[in-house]
TrEMBL record:
Its main location: periplasm. Belongs to the bacterial solute-binding protein SsuA/TauA family. This is ABC transporter periplasmic binding protein, urea carboxylase region. It is found in: Periplasm. Coiled coil: none annotated. PROSITE patterns: TAT. It comes from the Bacteria. Keywords: Signal. The keyword Calcium does not apply. SUPFAM superfamilies: Periplasmic binding protein-like II (SSF53850). GO terms for cellular component: periplasmic space.
Amino acid sequence: MKGMMVSRRACLHRLGTGVLALGVAGGPLAAATLVGCAAPATPLTIAWHPWPGYAPLQLAHSQGWWEGLPLQRLATGSASESLAQLRAGRAQAAALTLDEVLTAHASGLALRVVAVFDLSEGADVVLARPERSTPPSWRGARLGHEAGAVGTLMATAWLDAAGLQPEDVQMVHIPFDQHEAAWARDEVDVLVTFEPVATRLQQRGAVRIFDSSLLPADTAIVHVLAVHPRALDTHPAAGYALLRHIFAAQRHLHTLPVDSAYRLSPWLGLPRETVLASFRGLRLTDWADNRAWLVGAQPRLPAAAAALARVMHANAQLPSADAPVSLSAADWLPTDAPTVHLEAGA
């Protein structure tokens, strides 16, 4: 009835129907649908930094799919900056790693995981200068890494694999957006980094000596979309549209790789011909994967978070070995497999 508040599920259904009827992700019909769903006064702001796994976000935004929808991008230079934007309230959602979500929980920021972007199976790397690429040269090396959880986990894993202790090297904390500059200034001998920086540094002679495919089974690096809990209630329609766009952009990446490489090249800072290579060692997770991770009798996310929390606690990265009980939320995840392309002209 007119004037009555539409239920969350009805609102999401109306938005999805409006978007698909238009054949384009966004536009006037979707915007009108949002009005009927009591659209929030402020948009859902999503923070993300350059990382191939977040390409679906970048592709959706670059193609104008968000026009007319209460969705807004907040570009950052690193996950640490994205997390800071969440803490400051300038973003309601951010692309982060699962361990960063656990760290946020431990500090009082109870984020909820609403989607899983990818699994790193070699895309996070440890690089060395040619003269420091063999075991005899590692002792005493300057080991650069981001102070966040992934950087510490990768540094610790490499040290363990190399048979070294932290005191055997010189730890240098470097934010991700300063990795290339630190390498160029010869401030580090060994560097924990990830794509697209890894590809650019290897093109300049850096040698890969370790990567995330060699991590123990219980220390998986999982990239997720995390949101403030209140955003689940204040931005339901926008969140539902966002996840549909992510899955549609994944299809765009797979079916139109040349166009995707062209769009992603400036964002990743890579030549178009090397963009697709930066996805090596990365498994993008589709709708079915997300269902397996977030819903069902035995979703994968709680088990992965519990195992990761134990490892992080053992490495003094978390005060407790217990993962948060309420970590995931499937509120925005489509209940049915997306079968209709949201791209213009689909």
